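hey so u asked for the seq, here:
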Amino acid sequence: MAEINLNSLKSLTVFKTLFENGTATKTAKALGITQSGVSRSLAQLEENLGIPLFIRDKNRLISTPEAEELYKEILGLMFNLDEIKHSIQALREFGASRVRITTIPGLAFGYVPQTIAKVLAINPKLNIYLDIMSTNDVVRQVESGLFDVGFVTLPISSEQLQVDEIINTEAVCILPRKHPLTQKKTITLKDLSGQHLIIPNQPNIAADRLLHLITENHIKISGKTESNIAGICSLVGNNVGVSIINPITAKDLHHKNMVTRPFTPRINYSFGLIYRKNWRANKLIHIIRENLL
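ran it, structure tokens below
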């Protein structure tokens, strides 16, 4: 069998149309070619493949089992060609046809999904893969090329990555709605004395800073519960204790039985968007940055 080339692709198109229409007359009309052109294309394809595709019975063409198998394969081929066409169009317009995004848990439940929704509103055919992991893992995965874009807690250090600061905010205190401290406009470090504290169970710059302040200022808490970031607001809402977290997570995972108050001393949260340096001029990166909340 000869190699597949542009001419054989044209012959496959003629065959597909002939298989679907059943006659050379209808096929010629559908493709805007002559009946003799249809017959010639079919003959060349059969010679190229080395198998008969139709049985000629007077003026009728009866497809062979081989023709039925070939037709199924062509449908798959046409689908792949359409996918390639869409991918090329996406590359031209948006710089990528798919993007793999990884994010820290603190931004995973509202901020990043809302950003993705805004990007998809611009390019609905973009294929997206999203995963959640710690900042250190996000950095490693983007550096290795397994992911294209990452959302991290800053600061980070990487010579391979472009780091754009996207959020700078301050920690808030979240409390059960009927907690006595809700009477205060601002919660202070001393107010945590005697309280049950809920903290992240993974490395967290702000939580580490809070625990250091508690130790440094000899604040005696009654105890602590360590939880995945996704469970902290629910634990507070169920009267387990109080927590100091970033306001984005507090908003995204807000519990109906939870209230938020400013916290002092200030504990800073800084978040960044990271990607490999060769992506700096990529159109998709520009779209993501333009649609951050």
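The CA atoms of residues 122 and 183 lie 45 Å apart. The mean pLDDT is 88.
lmk if thats what u needed
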